[in-house]
Design goal:
transmembrane; alpha/beta; N-acetylglucosaminyl-proteoglycan 4-beta-glucuronosyltransferase activity; 14% strand; EC 2.4.1.225; Spore Coat Polysaccharide Biosynthesis Protein SpsA, Chain A; 8-stranded mixed sheet; Nucleotide-diphossugar_trans; Rossmann fold; 746 residues; 23 strands; 25 helices
């Protein structure tokens, strides 16, 4: 056996040597012949100056370098007709390789930050209502600037929303109009909004003019043409979509189990021919008329009867039996198949109705996919696997369904309920790309309160915000800073402001006291202030306006702020109890004086009331605890118009703060127990008695309510009947068993 192996090895080695000598000899003879030819050429005066003969010759030589924006065809050998070249120049794909690093000038944003300029409207140019709403949202935002030299981003006043040539909203000669803009610069640092592109029969994504290096905020954009971290995919919304505010989601309470009457529903058009017809034509295979109700109609368009098939009459009859709204509100899942374009109005309708969207639109780049994790709110299906959809959704656990439904409501109210939110989300995404070092992370975008209310300029650490303590495993702050707003001169040592200062300083949770001196008189001497166990810092307000009490002062070293008016009467026990309550609700306002709002049907406006009832929607900041982040949000999020109104009236700053906090949290403030004499004591103070009794003061607050509600686009305040009392409060037990016993004694 061993001998056979040896013979086999020797035979193999011999064969290899023979082959080696054979091929080596060929190579040697070829090189000798080549050297002879070169020698012969040199004798005849023929010299080769190219060094290419030193390198192996490959069949496909490397192509010469061409700038990326000139690569119109992948195959250079295929001839391109003049028409194809013209079409290519007008296509959105010419800048397909654009990214922020190659097609955006970051230097424009370094000096003045993220500012957006809107071109002035040109005479004779018509703008559709939807595009007017987009421009109005930009001009009303904190990003807007009317000075193009300060702008980082530019938005056209030319209506680019509807680029379907058959649409009455289509703007002709847009290419020449855009090219004539002196700031166009081949689209660099420009943002173009678009909802509809292409036309019958193929509905391409061509917007009909050369966008150059501009970014697209586009609906129904495909993943193939979407330029990651450059374009922004936006939802398709109707012309009736509200400009600001918007309706709340339809999920009023969490039903357990979370199943509804219908498991899966759809009601919409069926296209008999052309793009987008395949999926909707096949829905009847899944429809069972019981818990899976998928209805289509071919009764649309002028000449639908010419193209109708054998199913049309039956489908139309079934279609008329069901009410769409009733189906939407009583379904667990809503099918969102593609139409002529990838996007559909059904998407936003399903989100609002807390009906989990089941996406059937292969290749659609979902809205704001750069920041939103749609796996938490939708089921991403495949058009090719339509028949598997019912069994797939039936296999989803009830806990998952409830989580999906809750996330639809959060996303709807955070980013999609109004044109303003869609526009602001688009701008915030672009701003995060520019300033990556302070950009929001996925947790911020996909958790309450959402990316629009989290300003990353405040802090890059989530623990500095009041919404993520549970996510980070942190405990709320253990100390607070008392900020006392002083507006009257200090003339007596018995003034309420000094008593208040001493009471707050005695609290075991007090870290420091800041007196904001907004009085016209000079600052009192240091010896006029009482001695306290904690530092007392007196800040003189520069502008001495009401909004200055909510400025984000660097002197505030704690996350918790106890806001106090100078004439507030509180004991140390009350302060301690209010702070312990706030530690359980760090995102809300917690305090004592409560007020409420109501809708006045006779005047058709919002009303303000200070009546002491069991119902409230505001806790005034004259005696309240909240997170200091709201100082930053008040200063940098709210528009100057509202703050100027507050300063001119010297009123309503507490109402505006309640509006802001309720808009962020979607929750009411929390009222805590107060002593019996609180009402009489407050109204008895001389420094504020005239203010509260002044009828103009009350009328101003009524007016403020409606102005604030108009800016927010809805009424963010929520009513509550909850009051938190200390344990054993009012119980018939020994006072020694009660921790906050002084509250009952006063």
């Amino acid at each position: 056996m061993q001998a056979k192996k040896r013979y086999f090895i020797l035979l193999s080695a011999g064969t290899c040597l023979v082959l080696l000598f054979y091929f080596g000899g060929l190579q040697f003879r070829a090189s000798r012949n080549q050297s002879r030819r070169e020698e012969h050429s040199s004798r005849n005066g023929l010299h080769h100056t190219s060094p290419d003969h030193f390198w192996p010759q490959f069949p496909d030589a490397l192509r010469p370098f061409i700038p990326w924006d000139q690569l119109e065809n992948e195959d250079d050998n295929v001839p391109i007709s003049p028409k194809q070249k013209r079409d290519g120049n007008s296509s959105i794909y010419k800048g397909k390789r654009c990214r922020m690093e190659s097609c955006f000038d970051f230097t424009l944003c370094k000096k003045n930050g993220f500012k957006v300029y809107v071109y002035p409207q040109q005479k004779g140019e018509k703008i559709a209502e939807s595009y007017q709403n987009i421009l109005a949202a930009i001009e009303g935002s904190r990003f807007y600037t009317s000075d193009p030299s300060q702008a980082c981003l530019f938005v056209l006043s030319l209506d680019t929303l509807d680029r379907d040539q058959l649409s009455p909203q289509y703007v002709h000669n847009l290419k020449s109009k855009v090219q004539s803009l002196h700031l166009w610069n081949n689209g660099r640092n420009h943002l173009i909004f678009n909802l509809y592109s292409g036309t019958w029969p193929d509905y391409t994504e061509d917007v009909g003019f050369d966008i150059g290096q501009a970014m697209l905020a586009k609906a129904s954009i495909s993943t193939e043409n979407f330029r990651p971290n450059f374009d922004v995919s936006i939802p398709l919304f109707s012309k009736d979509h509200p400009r600001t505010g918007g309706e709340k989601g339809f999920l009023r309470f969490n039903t357990i189990p979370p199943l509804r009457k219908y498991m899966l529903v759809f009601k919409g058009k069926r296209y008999l021919t052309g793009i987008g017809s395949d999926t909707r034509n096949a829905l009847y295979h899944v429809h069972n008329g019981e818990d899976v109700v998928l209805l289509t109609t071919c009764k649309h368009g002028k000449d639908w009867q010419k193209h109708k098939d054998s199913r049309c009459d039956k489908d139309n009859t079934e279609y008329e039996k069901y009410d769409y709204r009733e189906m939407l509100h009583n379904a667990t899942f809503c099918l969102v198949p593609r139409g002529r374009r990838l996007g559909s109005f059904r998407f936003l309708e399903a989100l609002q109705a807390a009906c989990v969207p089941v996406m059937l639109s292969n290749g659609w780049e979902l809205p704001f996919s750069e920041v939103i994790d749609w796996n938490q709110a939708a089921i991403i299906g495949d058009e090719r696997l339509l028949l598997q959809i019912p069994s797939t959704i039936r296999s989803i656990h009830e806990d998952k369904i409830l989580a999906l439904r809750q996330q639809t409501q959060f996303l709807w109210e955070a980013y999609f309920s109004s044109v303003e939110k869609i526009v602001l989300t688009t701008l915030e995404i672009i701003q995060d790309r520019i300033f990556k070092h302070i950009s929001r992370n996925s947790l911020i975008w996909n958790k309450h309160p959402g990316g629009l209310f989290i300003l990353p300029q405040y802090s890059s650490y989530l623990g500095d915000f009041p919404y993520y303590y549970a996510n980070l495993g942190l405990k709320p702050p253990s100390k607070f800073t008392a900020v006392i707003h002083a507006v009257t001169p200090l003339v007596s040592q018995s003034q309420p402001v000094l008593k208040l200062l001493v009471a707050a300083a005695k609290s075991q949770y007090c870290a420091q006291i800041i007196v904001l001196w907004n009085c016209d008189k000079p600052l009192p001497a240091k010896h006029r202030w009482p001695a306290t166990p904690v530092p007392v810092i007196v800040i003189e307000g520069e502008s001495k306006v009401m909004s200055s009490r909510f400025l984000p002062y660097d002197n505030i070293i704690t996350d918790a702020v106890l806001s106090l008016d100078e004439d507030t009467v509180l004991s140390t026990t009350e302060v301690d109890f209010a702070f312990t309550v706030w530690q359980s609700f760090p995102e809300r306002i917690v305090g004592y004086p409560a007020r409420s709002h109501f809708w006045d049907n006779t005047k058709e406006r919002w009303g303000y009331t200070s009546k002491w009832t069991n119902d409230y929607s505001m806790v005034l900041t004259g005696a309240a605890i909240y997170h200091k982040y709201y100082h930053y949000l008040y200063t940098h999020y709210l528009p100057a118009s509202l703050k100027n109104m507050v300063d001119q009236l010297a009123n309503c700053e507490d109402i505006l703060m309640n509006f802001l906090v309720s808009a962020v949290t979607k929750l009411p403030p929390i009222k805590v127990t107060q002593k019996k004499q609180y009402k009489e004591t407050m109204m008895g103070q001389t420094s504020r008695a005239s203010r509260w009794a002044d009828p103009d003061h009350f009328a101003q607050r009524q007016s403020c309510m409606n102005t604030f509600a108009s800016w927010f686009g809805y009424m963010p305040l929520s009513h509550s009947q909850m009051r938190l009392d200390p344990v054993l409060f009012k119980d018939q037990v020994s006072i020694l068993r009660k921790k906050y016993r002084d509250i009952e004694r006063l």
